[in-house]
Amino acid sequence: LLEGSFLWPGAAARSLQDPLTFRNLPQVQGACRDALEHVESLLAIELNASQGNPIVVADEDRVVSV
Length: 66
Description:
1 helix; mainly alpha; single chain
Protein backbone atom coordinates (compact mmCIF):
# COMPACT_ATOMS: atom_id res chain seq x y z
CA LEU A 1 0.00 0.00 0.00
CA LEU A 2 2.80 2.45 0.87
CA GLU A 3 5.29 1.17 -1.71
CA GLY A 4 6.66 4.13 -3.65
CA SER A 5 5.09 6.60 -1.23
CA PHE A 6 7.06 9.42 0.38
CA LEU A 7 5.86 8.03 3.73
CA TRP A 8 7.86 4.84 3.19
CA PRO A 9 11.31 5.88 1.92
CA GLY A 10 13.07 2.91 3.46
CA ALA A 11 15.87 3.82 5.85
CA ALA A 12 15.13 7.54 6.18
CA ALA A 13 13.82 8.42 9.64
CA ARG A 14 10.88 10.78 9.73
CA SER A 15 7.85 11.42 11.87
CA LEU A 16 4.54 10.18 10.51
CA GLN A 17 2.55 12.72 12.53
CA ASP A 18 2.79 16.42 13.17
CA PRO A 19 4.07 17.44 16.61
CA LEU A 20 1.49 17.14 19.37
CA THR A 21 1.35 20.91 19.87
CA PHE A 22 0.25 21.43 16.26
CA ARG A 23 -2.39 18.70 16.46
CA ASN A 24 -3.91 19.98 19.73
CA LEU A 25 -3.75 23.72 19.06
CA PRO A 26 -7.31 24.16 17.66
CA GLN A 27 -8.93 22.36 20.60
CA VAL A 28 -6.90 24.21 23.24
CA GLN A 29 -7.31 27.59 21.56
CA GLY A 30 -11.07 27.05 21.17
CA ALA A 31 -11.47 26.11 24.83
CA CYS A 32 -9.47 29.19 25.91
CA ARG A 33 -11.61 31.47 23.74
CA ASP A 34 -14.80 30.00 25.21
CA ALA A 35 -13.47 30.48 28.74
CA LEU A 36 -12.49 34.10 28.06
CA GLU A 37 -15.90 34.88 26.55
CA HIS A 38 -17.59 33.35 29.60
CA VAL A 39 -15.42 35.40 31.99
CA GLU A 40 -16.16 38.55 29.98
CA SER A 41 -19.91 37.99 30.26
CA LEU A 42 -19.67 37.29 34.02
CA LEU A 43 -17.57 40.41 34.59
CA ALA A 44 -20.03 42.54 32.63
CA ILE A 45 -22.90 41.28 34.79
CA GLU A 46 -21.01 41.79 38.05
CA LEU A 47 -19.68 45.24 37.15
CA ASN A 48 -23.13 46.46 36.10
CA ALA A 49 -24.96 45.10 39.15
CA SER A 50 -25.53 46.86 42.44
CA GLN A 51 -24.21 44.83 45.36
CA GLY A 52 -26.14 46.49 48.19
CA ASN A 53 -23.44 49.05 48.81
CA PRO A 54 -24.13 52.70 48.11
CA ILE A 55 -23.83 53.58 44.45
CA VAL A 56 -21.91 56.74 43.60
CA VAL A 57 -23.22 58.47 40.48
CA ALA A 58 -20.35 60.83 39.69
CA ASP A 59 -22.05 62.54 36.73
CA GLU A 60 -25.01 63.61 38.89
CA ASP A 61 -23.03 64.25 42.11
CA ARG A 62 -25.19 61.93 44.20
CA VAL A 63 -25.02 58.73 46.24
CA VAL A 64 -27.84 56.18 45.97
CA SER A 65 -28.48 53.49 48.56
CA VAL A 66 -30.91 50.73 47.60
